[in-house]
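Hi W.,

Here's what went into the run:
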Amino acid sequence: MFRKVLVANRGEIAVRIIRALREFGISSIAVYSDADRASLAVRMADEAAHLGPAPSSESYLRIDKIIDAAKRHGAEAIHPGYGFLSENAEFAEACAAEGIVFIGPPPSAIRRMGSKTAARQVAIAAGAPVVPGTKEPLGEIQEAKRIAGEIGYPVLLKASAGGGGKGMRRVDREADLESALRDARSEALRAFRNDEVYVEKLVLEPRHIEIQVLGDHHGHMIHLGERECSIQRRHQKVIEECPSPVMLAHPELREKMGAAALKIARAAGYANAGTMEFLVDRDRNFYFLEMNTRLQVEHPVTELATSLDLVHWQLRIASGQPLTIRQEDVQWTGSAIECRIYAEDPGNNYLPSPGKITYLEQPSGPGIRLDSGVYSGWTVPLDYDPMLAKIAVWAPSREAAIERMRRALGEYVVEGIRTNIAWFDGILADECFRAGEFSTAFLDRFKPPAAPAADLETEAVAVLVASLKQAKSPAPAPAKSSAWLAIGRAEMMR
Amino acid sequence: MKLDAKVDGLAAKFESNGARFRYERNGEAVEREYSIAALAPGSFSVLIEGRSYSVVSVEGSIRVNGRPFAVEVFDPREMRGHSAGAFGEGRRNIASPMPGKVVRVLVSAGDAVEAGQGLVVVEAMKMQNEMKSPKAGKVVEVKAKADATVQAGEVLVVIE
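Here's what came out:
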């Protein structure tokens, strides 16, 4: 096993990895930008290395500076976390060139699975299902009709050069194909100066379900089941679960999807921890989307449901040890749910809310796991992702886990910045969510319930406490509410 | 102690002698005996007839059992009045709703603008937000400079 490991990341995931290192008796080296000098990760690590100015392009994305820090501090290995350089094959190669172990897959596997189109080819070759369609541009209308007919309606026309919905058309029947193709092409031409359009099956009301895989460098690989990630806002996951409610009702789907994920991972020459993302339709057909060649943000729900520590296994595997768990040893118990806590204002179009945390109370008690990168007095920098922490809970049943999460969120108090903590309760109380009946469209339709009117006594308690400050201050001044509210009222933002 | 208050925008009256309070809003009133304990800076426990309230009060923000309240309290003996400031006379200050960095300035002083027209783009945490003009009018002043760091509430543009 390693004696010293550098953590090439920041925030809660740096803290998570430092904890695992300490549990293994391994010295940890944190890295930090100017904005993160006072971070929790720097304080918790055994050693810390400065990278540069706050922008990630000058700090956490600088391969040369990170390698240099690793050499100066004598690190034998680097854990990249998620984001930043975690899926960068060049970085993995640069580590290898310096004799430093990259805690992750081989660079060749990162390259192979890093591009969506290349990964799709690997999946097809491995015999795993992908969203039916072709990435080749469509030719004449007759050819388009033939291909769309084979795929089966409804289909989606997409611009080859596309993005942002431009040049995209849903087609429900063959009679509409010709005009839709013409519209999509002219829109694509205007938007991207390229009128190439391809066609794929439209997966209706899909769920986003992913499979965790774990493999060693001796040819042994297992899957650790699924994570349900359908609750997303603008493709950003906010709640994840293991098991998925689909698997609770149809356990055989876990076996099928697990087997497909393993086929793809083996074909890619994969090792260490990785995740296959799938779309699952209402009839439980599943289609491979892409692979994440790293530890996922939401890995704690898998850890809680399986009692396996993914970061521990990443370290063992990277140091050359064999994976000693057989597939039949993996057991899923109870239900785990995670909520991602963001510095954002759900009441004001989810605007980011960086700033100083002036007050913090964190949830604890039975079944609660908090992975946090913040403390009271920490100034959340405006330079990075707004995720502050993840709360994960475990309970014997999904219903109990939902109630436990609501209890935990109720104990969580963050002041000084806005967060989405209170926003989750409306989702967790929603009938469709509780029934496990939802798709990736859930949050598009979700309307947070209005807060019930406070009773007069509760309101009086608020004024009572406000009056204490009034009594203390020599020159009475209005105890102003948040500047945010005042500005929000000015209606300048849409 | 007698105070005027504004709670979530509604006027209210509050009176307390340290062990008993009377609170009145919209013609409804409650009168209760209470005990209060300060637990830590910003953290209070209030007991009323055995009912427990956990209160967090930091920099003007007040939460009772997790529920946020916008509370302002005034001593009625003090003269007071909201100054209209730059918001009066049809002038509108366009302020940054969050700390961030100015990415682009889309208008110059003297420009005529439509309601909803983009004025300045501010970025924080990888998210860009376009400040829009709240009304049709003329740009009086542009305080925002590209690449400058701004605080929440900092005025970027003045519209008339």
